[in-house]
């Protein structure tokens, strides 16, 4: 029982990070129609630039926002320089371009940070605490609570603010949105900026658990992608549940089978979903609401 | 005053509109009728900036608006209520209305509430649905919402693309009455595109007939309804030889 609790906590922690990645995918996809294969690279930049800011002497509470803002600016720049000029081309072209962007950023990461893994100190430095029979790493708790808070903020932003309603309108019907006076291309820039910031947060959160390298974007990007596929491409609540579910599946399979296979299991889940329910588990249940 | 001179539109390589000339005076309702595929929607979409014209010029109150993208055309005072209503089904009625004034929202935020009240007075059936999702409204209510949303930007001219489509005659009449009120109370110029020719002739001050991307006829509703071609083609009246 304790073990089950333990796996559940671990799963939810990692899963909440995947959820952030998945929200990044969903936001860009719904506003631009693009599957952004550079999403994982935003996590890499977030994590490694945070390490660098710490090494430069910034305290953690300043290094984290600095890294998030830097990554958000890069997300914005990617949209303006690479996506925006070719926005009228086919979606396939745009997706291939994001693969190119991903490769480019990864190369840049290699040049700047080299191949050796970097470690990011956890924010919470106290020892593990006992909760409901599980031994909880305070860092895990910190991650989980931060993501919950972030989800609440995102909910308010998307559902309760005027600009959030403009984003949802642009997702649903860009043509009609433009008739309202909404510059849908600036919504696309906003989507990339937001997704990059979310990616950075995910990278910063996961770095103390797994170490950060210039290559880390692939795996975390893949996990976020699978979470999105589980939840259905067009809703944020689905992405959250998909992320948590994937995290839990991984934790349990890692615990009861072998951690060696946990990434293969993520792939397996992806293939199963694509074969049997390509629209996602929640595409019906949660309707069109984001 | 809206002036359209020599407006042509290509979609891909195909020319859809052929040098359209048209104008709307202050305080006028102008109807455009014509068969399916005549180019009515393409004309309205071009005026609204969804398509860029290949030639020609559009001015609104003396200001050139052709060549601007849709989100800038609204700011110049032209609002399109598109074919098929196109309301945001995932947003509430209130959110739909507020987005209608997106172009002035940040400047006139404190007037937003009054403005919504005014629109709701014009479309009382929307009141009880104000917090419901747009997608849950009936067809008639969605059309009311689409028109209300189009008015939220306080346009100088509003274009309506087949507002009667799929609606019961009683609701069509309600919409026609609302158009008369918009004209009288707000002084907004109106272009009404309709397949429902009787409805279009009823409220119009002037009528244009479109055929294959051209303006084929132009006149008062009386002149147009007396025209033998219109009688046989659109009003279902057989010509007696
Ligand atoms: N997106 C499009 N791509 C290609 N052809 C189009 C497109 N939209 C309209 N057309 C063509 O333009 C012509 C006019 O269409 P439209 O403006 O919708 O007519 P109406 O509104 O009068 O029924 C039609 O022949 C139609 O097939
Ligand atoms: Mg049409």
Automatic annotation (TrEMBL), chain A:
Q: Where is it chiefly localized?
A: membrane
Gene Ontology MF term list:
transmembrane transporter activity
By its UniProt entry, which InterPro entries does this protein fall under?
ABC_transp_permease, BCAA_transport_permease
- Annotated Gene Ontology cellular component terms: plasma membrane
Q: Name one GO biological process term.
A: amino acid transport
Give me the segments passing through the membrane. 6-27, 60-78, 90-114, 134-158, 179-205, 225-249, 256-276
Q: How does it sit in the membrane?
A: Multi-pass membrane protein
* Family matches, as Pfam families: BPD_transp_2
**Keywords annotated in UniProt:** Amino-acid transport, Cell membrane, Membrane, Transmembrane, Transmembrane helix, Transport
* Protein's cellular compartments: Cell membrane
Among CDD domains, the record links this protein to:
TM_PBP1_LivH_like
- Tell me the protein family, please: Belongs to the binding-protein-dependent transport system permease family. LivHM subfamily.
- Know the name of this protein? Amino acid/amide ABC transporter membrane protein 1 (HAAT family)
Native source species: Paranoxybacillus vitaminiphilus
Q: Which lineage?
A: Bacteria, Bacillati, Bacillota, Bacilli, Bacillales
From TrEMBL, chain B:
Q: Which Gene3D superfamilies does the record associate with it?
A: P-loop containing nucleotide triphosphate hydrolases (3.40.50.300)
Where does the record place the ABC transporter domain?
2-237
Q: Which UniProt keywords apply?
A: Amino-acid transport, ATP-binding, Nucleotide-binding, Transport
Q: Which family, according to the similarity comment?
A: Belongs to the ABC transporter superfamily.
PROSITE patterns found in the cross-reference section? ABC_TRANSPORTER_1, ABC_TRANSPORTER_2
InterPro entries, per database record: AAA+_ATPase (IPR003593), ABC_transporter-like_ATP-bd (IPR003439), ABC_transporter-like_CS (IPR017871), BCA_ABC_TP_C (IPR032823), BCAA_Transport_ATP-bd_LivF (IPR052156), P-loop_NTPase (IPR027417)
The source's domain of life comes to: Bacteria
| Species the sequence originates in | Paranoxybacillus vitaminiphilus
Annotated protein name in UniProt: Amino acid/amide ABC transporter ATP-binding protein 2 (HAAT family)
GO process annotations (BP): L-amino acid transport
Q: What Gene Ontology molecular function terms does this protein carry? A: ATP binding; ATP hydrolysis activity; branched-chain amino acid transmembrane transporter activity
């Amino acid at each position: 029982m304790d073990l089950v609790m333990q796996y559940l906590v671990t799963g939810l922690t990692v899963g909440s990070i995947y959820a952030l990645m998945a929200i990044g995918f969903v936001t860009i996809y719904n506003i631009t129609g693009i599957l952004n294969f550079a999403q994982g690279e935003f996590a890499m930049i977030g994590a490694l630039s945070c390490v660098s800011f710490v090494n430069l002497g910034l305290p953690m509470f300043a290094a984290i926002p600095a890294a998030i803002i830097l990554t958000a600016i890069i997300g914005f720049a990617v949209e303006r320089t690479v996506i925006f000029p070719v926005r009228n081309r086919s979606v396939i072209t745009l997706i291939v371009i994001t693969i190119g962007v991903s490769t480019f950023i990864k190369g840049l990461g290699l040049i700047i940070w080299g191949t050796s893994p970097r470690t990011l100190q956890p924010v919470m430095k106290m020892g593990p605490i006992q909760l409901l029979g599980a031994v909880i790493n305070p860092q895990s708790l910190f991650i989980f609570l931060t993501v919950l808070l972030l989800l609440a903020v995102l909910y308010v932003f998307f559902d309760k603010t005027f600009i959030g309603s403009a984003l949802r309108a642009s997702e649903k019907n860009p043509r009609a949105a433009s008739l309202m006076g909404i510059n849908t291309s600036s919504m696309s820039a906003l989507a990339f900026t937001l997704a990059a910031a979310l990616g950075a947060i995910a990278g910063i959160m996961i770095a103390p658990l797994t170490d950060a390298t210039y290559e880390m974007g692939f795996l975390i990007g893949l996990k976020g992608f699978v979470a999105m596929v589980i939840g259905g491409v067009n809703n944020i609540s689905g992405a959250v549940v998909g992320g948590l579910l994937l995290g839990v599946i991984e934790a349990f399979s890692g615990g009861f089978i072998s951690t060696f296979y946990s990434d293969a299991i993520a792939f397996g889940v992806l293939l199963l979903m694509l074969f049997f329910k390509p629209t996602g588990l929640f595409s019906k249940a949660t309707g069109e609401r984001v | 005053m809206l002036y359209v001179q020599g407006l042509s539109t290509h979609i891909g390589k195909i020319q859809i509109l052929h040098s359209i000339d048209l104008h709307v005076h202050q305080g006028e309702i102008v109807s455009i009728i014509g068969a399916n595929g005549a180019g009515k929607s393409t004309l309205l979409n071009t005026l609204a900036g969804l398509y860029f014209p290949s030639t020609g010029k559009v001015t609104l109150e003396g200001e050139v608006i052709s060549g601007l993208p849709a989100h800038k055309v609204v700011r110049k005072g032209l609002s399109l209520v598109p074919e098929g209503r196109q309301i945001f089904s995932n947003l509430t009625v209130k959110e739909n209305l507020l987005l209608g004034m997106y172009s002035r929202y940040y400047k006139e935020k404190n007037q937003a509430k009054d403005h919504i009240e005014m629109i709701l007075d014009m479309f009382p059936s929307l009141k009880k649905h104000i917090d419901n999702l747009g997608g849950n409204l009936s067809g008639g209510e969605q059309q009311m919402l689409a028109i209300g949303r189009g008015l939220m930007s306080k346009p100088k001219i509003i274009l309506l693309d087949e507002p009667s489509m799929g609606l019961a005659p009683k609701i069509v009449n309600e919409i026609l009455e609302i158009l008369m009120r918009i004209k009288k109370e707000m002084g907004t110029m109106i272009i009404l595109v309709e397949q429902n020719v009787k409805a279009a002739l009823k409220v119009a001050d002037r009528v244009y007939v479109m055929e294959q991307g051209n303006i084929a006829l132009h006149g008062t509703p009386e002149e147009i309804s007396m025209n033998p071609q219109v009688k046989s083609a659109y009003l279902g009246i057989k010509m007696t030889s």
